[in-house]
Amino acid sequence: MKPEGSPEFDRHARDYSAGFDDPLKQAIGADARAFLRPKLDLLRRAAARGAGPDGAPLRYLDFGCGTGDFLALVREAGLPWEAEGCDVSPGMLAEARRRWPDLDRSGALWVAGDEFPEERYDVITAICVLHHVPPAGWPATLVRLRRALRPGGLLCVFEHNPWNPVTRWMIRRTAIDANAVLLSPRTCARLLRGAGFPAVAVSHFLFVPPRWARLARAERALRWLPLGGQYVAAARADQFRVAAPAAAP
């Protein structure tokens, strides 16, 4: 995802399938949701609480929501959250509105432009977004998300793991990832700390294909091992505002 907008993503928006036109990806997961459900499970565990500090429902933002598939999954799960999604690609958001009319009717989708809310959200996700941002923009993007969180708010950054050879191979086969730059779990954690998050917890997942559901249940014991296909870096905002982004790697 590019901060200045993304005609590249607009071109891929219509009937976007998250790479599931690739027979190999179909063989390891029935559909895109097979890869989203583990993320929802990890998010629910990380968020833990169901209400904000004022007792109201948690305000949730899916940053870089694309076609809205994860946002729709959150709503279908019945979480008592006020859920929104944003993206720099108007084409992706148009496709999200077509797929999920309820999101459109509720006004939950908006274009992430220069103006960005501050201290609005209790939970933010960035799901496979950062690898589409030029590396020089990683620090500023994370500072932007940090400032959008309320004190004590949670940011979960989900990313592809470049230490996993299968992941690297799949990225090379996916057209929308042609310009992707993967960042390691270590780099992601360092950037989050530099953006003002005092503590970062990293968990690894997708050690086995989602189709192998029985084996997938055993993944919890392996979340410390940095070899899963993807990882999540979870960080809570403290009460202090960050003055400037850290230097790019």
Your description of this structure?
With 249 residues, this protein is of the alpha/beta class. The chain has one domain: 3-Layer(aba) Sandwich (Rossmann fold). The protein is 34% helix and 18% strand. It contains 10 helices and 7 strands. It has a 7-stranded mixed beta sheet, sandwiched between helices. Helix 1 runs parallel beside helix 5 (90-99) and helix 3 (32-47) packs across helix 4 (69-76). The chain is globular. The relative contact order is 0.16. Residues 1-5 and 240-249 have low confidence and may be disordered.
Concise description?
By secondary structure, the chain is an alpha/beta fold.
Provide the gyration radius in Å: 17 Å
Label the overall shape: globular
How many beta-strand segments? 7
Helix/strand class = alpha/beta
What is the CATH top level name? Alpha Beta
Number of helices: 10
Overall helicity = 25-40%
Largest sheet: 7 strands, mixed
CATH superfamily membership, which one? Vaccinia Virus protein VP39
- Average pLDDT: 82
N- and C-termini, Cα separation: 18 Å
What is the string of helix and strand elements? Answer: HHHEHEHHEEHEHHEHE
Secondary-structure arrangement, i.e. CATH architecture = 3-Layer(aba) Sandwich
Percentage of residues in strands = 15-25%
**Poorly predicted spans:** 1-5, 240-249
Estimate nothing, just give the exact number of structural domains: 1
Strands in their spatial order, largest beta sheet: 3-2-1-4-5-7-6
**CATH T-level fold name:** Rossmann fold
